[in-house]
């Protein structure tokens, strides 16, 4: 195009092309810069990934070295112990892990109850690692320490879903006489739980006067318990007797166990090992089925069920939905009376009720805020009592799958037991007390404590077969036999009664971790951190026998309903089934 004044000028299309070329060049320049940045970023990511992999490899190497080191230490310690040399552990577990074969560090307090006992799971000796509970500045109210489901009107019992039992109903309980033949685990061999109980019968005497009961014999006039250990005569301190110093008539020896019989009283018992049941972890609890055919044990992440006759493992119950990392100890196991279900209480605050035949979970009860340490079924099989470090005892209905009561106290609950008729639940606590509640109302009816009570935390309680006596074991190294004075037929607001301590058994050298009575009520059994199991005469308080059958704390002892059998579970990763019998003088 020609302009007379300006001459030739570029056409519009050529100017646009020039601008586009400039934009293309700038875009290509920016693209090259972006590519360089991406390349640098990719290189940095690769470098970070290499560093992460190296750190991970170093962590794995450190874990492997630690495991190898601890395994070697355990092997050396085991070899030393087999030669009779006491060992002391110098391995301090970290805050997040526990050495193999050792329960988690669960110390004193609401969330950690058992660290003092289990802090040295692979070493012997004594020495509490559990601090005493804090002083109680205030005494609890004389009654109703908890809020029941609904308020009771003065002079009337609380109508709850828990209730009592129909008059004349045949009920059995912990340590009671064996029930009629019931279904054992296996397909097609189940029996449905009885329907719900009838209206509470608060005026009905469940048991006669215990002094008239043949299950706990009255103390003969003038009978005195053997002194709990004098310098020249050990008395009930049977662990002080050297088996080599005793004649054959006062001892019994096996390949890796022995029993000592008190030389100061007449020997009337004998004992033998029936089965040795090895586990992969500490055995926290043992419990027989009500028909005596099976033994359940609780350990890390699983519960095991063994055939009592053969000693064979017939079931392993493990929740596969639980996180596989870390430890999860089963602290308590309990069969339903018909043998159809097994309840387990664990450190994840959950109660699982297993259908044994199908190996499936029937119920999961949640609500506890800390580890669950103890469970017990009611005699009718419908209700479960649980005790937790969250300072509560809770009653659960497995038929309706719901919570019935929450019974609160001032400190962590370590142990619970249901009376044989199901009317009462007892609990031991870190505050040194034993409490008993009426399950038909939720009211506290007994508080067993000083001046005759324990001087340290109570770790085990069990009802006698007559339902009116109770035994408790404590970190004060003693066992106590209580005669309950529950005011049956009276309104709870008549006041909390204090049961009478009728016997104190002294002789263990360390914490008493588990207590129970034989089904006939003739013997009190106890397991201790001193590795021993002792049989006590409830009338005289004398120790009859001390059994040394484990290499670590005896955490749990339990009687079988039949056959004079009992079981023990220990920190040495073993459970054992034993038989006691009348001594024939051989």
UniProtKB/TrEMBL annotation:
* Stretch list, region Disordered: 93-251
Gene3D superfamilies noted in UniProt? 1.20.5.340, YVTN repeat-like/Quinoprotein amine dehydrogenase
For bias type Pro residues, the affected ranges are: 130-143
Q: Where are the WD repeats?
A: 330-364, 365-406, 406-447, 451-484, 505-546, 547-586
SUPFAM superfamilies listed in its UniProt record? WD40 repeat-like (SSF50978)
Query: Cross-referenced Pfam families, in alphabetical order?
Result: Tup_N (PF08581), WD40 (PF00400)
Q: Which residues form the Transcriptional repressor Tup1 N-terminal domain?
A: 15-83
Q: Which InterPro entries match?
A: Tscrpt_rep_Tup1_N (IPR013890), WD40/YVTN_repeat-like_dom_sf (IPR015943), WD40_PAC1 (IPR020472), WD40_repeat_CS (IPR019775), WD40_repeat_dom_sf (IPR036322), WD40_rpt (IPR001680)
On whether Membrane is a keyword of this UniProt record, the answer is: no
List the keywords (alphabetical). Repeat, Repressor, Transcription, Transcription regulation, WD repeat
Which residue stretches does the UniProt record annotate as biased composition, category Low complexity?
A: 144-172, 185-206
- Supply the name of the protein: Transcriptional repressor Tup1 N-terminal domain-containing protein
In its UniProt entry, the species of origin is given as Penicillium frequentans
């Amino acid at each position: 195009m020609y302009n007379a004044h300006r001459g030739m000028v570029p056409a519009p299309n050529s100017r646009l092309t020039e601008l586009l070329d400039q934009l293309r060049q700038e875009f290509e320049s920016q693209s090259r810069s972006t590519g360089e940045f991406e390349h640098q970023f990719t290189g940095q990511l690769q470098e970070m990934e290499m560093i992460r992999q190296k750190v991970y490899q170093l962590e794995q190497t450190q874990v492997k070295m630690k495991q190898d080191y601890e395994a070697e230490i355990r092997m050396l310690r085991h070899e030393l112990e087999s030669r009779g040399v006491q060992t002391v552990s110098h391995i301090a577990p970290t805050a997040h892990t526990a050495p193999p074969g050792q329960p988690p560090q669960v110390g004193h307090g609401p969330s950690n109850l058992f660290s003092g006992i289990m802090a040295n799971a692979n070493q012997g000796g004594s020495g509490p690692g559990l601090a005493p509970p804090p002083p109680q500045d205030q005494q609890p109210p004389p009654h109703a320490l908890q809020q029941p489901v609904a308020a009771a009107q003065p002079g009337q019992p609380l109508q709850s879903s828990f209730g009592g039992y129909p008059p004349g109903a045949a009920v059995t309980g912990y340590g009671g006489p064996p029930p009629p033949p019931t279904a054992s685990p296996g397909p097609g061999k189940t029996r449905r739980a009885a329907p719900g109980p009838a209206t509470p019968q608060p005026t009905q005497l469940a048991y006669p006067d215990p002094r008239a009961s043949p299950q706990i014999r009255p103390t003969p006039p003038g009978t005195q318990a053997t002194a709990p250990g004098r310098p020249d005569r050990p008395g009930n301190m049977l662990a002080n007797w050297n088996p080599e110093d005793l004649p054959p008539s006062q001892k019994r020896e096996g390949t890796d166990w022995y029993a000592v019989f008190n030389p100061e009283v007449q020997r009337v018992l004998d004992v033998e090992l029936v089965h040795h049941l090895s586990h992969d972890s500490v055995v926290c609890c043992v419990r027989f089925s009500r028909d005596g055919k099976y033994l359940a044990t609780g350990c890390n992440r699983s519960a095991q069920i063994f055939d009592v006759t053969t000693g064979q493992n017939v079931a392993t119950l493990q929740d596969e939905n639980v996180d596989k990392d870390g430890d999860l100890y089963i602290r308590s196991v309990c069969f339903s009376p018909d043998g159809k279900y097994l309840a387990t209480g664990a450190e994840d605050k959950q109660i699982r009720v297993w259908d044994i035949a199908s190996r499936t979970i029937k119920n999961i009860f949640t609500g506890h805020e800390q580890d669950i340490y103890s469970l017990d079924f009611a005699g009718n099989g419908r209700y479960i009592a649980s005790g937790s470090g969250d300072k509560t005892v809770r009653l659960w209905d497995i038929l309706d799958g719901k919570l019935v009561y929450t019974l609160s106290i001032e400190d962590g609950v370590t142990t619970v037991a249901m009376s044989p008729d199901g009317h009462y639940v007892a609990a031991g606590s870190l505050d040194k007390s034993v409490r008993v509640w009426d399950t038909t109302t939720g009211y506290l009816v007994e508080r067993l404590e000083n001046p005759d009570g324990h001087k340290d935390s109570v770790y085990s309680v069990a009802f006698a077969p007559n339902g009116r006596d109770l035994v408790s074991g404590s970190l004060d190294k003693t066992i106590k036999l209580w005669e309950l004075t529950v005011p049956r037929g009276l309104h709870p607001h008549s006041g909390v009664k204090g049961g009478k301590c009728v016997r104190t058994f002294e002789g263990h050298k360390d914490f008493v971790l588990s207590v129970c009575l034989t089904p006939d009520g003739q013997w009190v059994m106890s397991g201790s951190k001193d590795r021993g199991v002792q049989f006590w005469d409830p009338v005289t308080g004398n120790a009859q026998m001390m059994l040394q059958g484990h290499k670590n704390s005896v955490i749990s002892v339990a009687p079988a309903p039949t056959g004079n059998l009992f079981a023990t579970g220990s920190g040495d990763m073993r459970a054992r089934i034993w038989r006691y019998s009348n001594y024939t003088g051989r």
